[in-house]
Request: fold
Amino acid sequence: MTEKKYYLTTPLYYVNAKPHIGHAYTNVLCDTFARYRRFLGEDVFFLTGTDEHGTKIEKAAREQSKDPRTYVDEMVPQFKSLWETLGIQYDYFIRTTDEAHKKSVQNILKDLEAKGEIYKASYKGWYCTPCESFWTKLQLKEGKCPDCGRDVQELSEENYFFKLSKYQDWLIKYIQENDFIRPEIRKNEILGFLREPLEDLCITRPRARLAWGIDYPNSKDHVVYVWFDALINYISAAGFMADDKKFRTLWPADLQVVGKDILRQHAVYWPIMLKACGVEMPKLVLAHGWWTMEGAKVSKSRGNAVDPIELVKKYSVDALRYFLMREVTIGNDGAFSEDLLAERYTSDLANDLGNLWFRFTSMLEKYFAGAIPALEKTGEKEPLLSASFKLWEKVTPLMVAYDPREALAVVWSVIVMANQFVEEKKPWVLAKDPAKKAGLSQALAVLGEAVIHIAVILLAFMPATAAKILERSQLPKEWIVKTEKDFARTFLKSGTKIERGEALFPRLEEIK
Ligand code: MSP
Reply:
């Protein structure tokens, strides 16, 4: 028996422009899920990568007078470096130009042809020359290109088609009977789309029109359609038809995160491709919404792309990670504005969390020379302590249900409680009265446990900040907490020196 890993995937990013906040969002979400599962002791395989074929890329390369191969090789490091900046701990980075992937796509196509799932036919459509896009009549908007609104030309081509329509009834039933697409609103959208007859999918492009793609196995004149090529990455990276043992440990994927704009490919084409290959369905496709500005999706082509690197420089990586996850519920759109980020930074990070750390460590320094006092029975009864001990129990089901926003809300409720605890206990008053020394040491012992429990639970969300707190408290940065009991206990040893260090989140006035 091989152990199944927890396998999660991000979409593969097109390399025709540098990544923006929308791309950062998907990978931050996935990274947080991956880190949380590792924290629970699961064996995780986190896949991300780049989508490098097709018209968009060929065109972008041409605009820079580069051959596509040179162009993609130059673009990929920008993605890898952003993931490094954002602390994205992926296990494998796939490029659709990898030889192993190309081979896998070709093997799958041969297999599907042999099974009679693919046929050759003449295809009539409307072509928009400036966009280099081929449209069906239904897709046209008032007879014009739906992307740019310009005139289109009618064209006829010989291409290879994949029999999507054959599986329509099966797919509808599968979606209805399984928790396969979330959120519900997107599941219903897909079911709505499936009420109309599905057209078979044209999976090649004539080489005369597009040369930058994977060679179609039995034809010199065709390359593989970029979506058919790219979707296969999820199984080619997992060793499908190449490494059975690896494939058994990974597939079916546990979670495939995508933006709502590419749900149809992942919830219609992809399951049918897998079904035709005789491969199990991924467990869940989770579609998130868009980051928008002034109502429009943030994107390179709209010219409103927000550079995550700039935001990290100004606000820190954890501030950006926190903002992206806290500001919107997965599935909904979120209006991006730097003012909102600055507001969250000041209120939740500098004031709530940063201030809690500052107050705790300053008082510890002042009254106990930085050494944490022992926790006695009186301290154990404090509601703040039990709330801190319960963090794992409350956050874990939310993270298993992919709700990081609510999970962070739970953590922040304890941070707020800890700050109130300080206000109520008034350690500075207790410190003036030698008879209240025990009360003072219990207040700080409880506060210390609260802070450490908060840091441990935040490891997956804000790894750099959590690590700072743990390091300054002489505790390890790597944690595996498998059970509620392992978390509902004290973490600090009395007498441990805790170092205040620099502010976790300096005031914006100081960094601007
Ligand atoms: N290459 C395809 C995916 C192939 S997966 C086999 C693609 N690439 S993309 O670069 O255009 O988009 C990648 C992901 O980024 C998508 O999930 C998309 O939804 C997401 N985002 C792009 N802009 C976005 C926002 N403004 N907001 C949130 N996410 C968005 O599609």
About this structure: The two ends are 56 Å apart (CA to CA). Residues 339-511 form a domain with the Isoleucyl-tRNA Synthetase; Domain 1 fold (CATH 1.10.730.10).
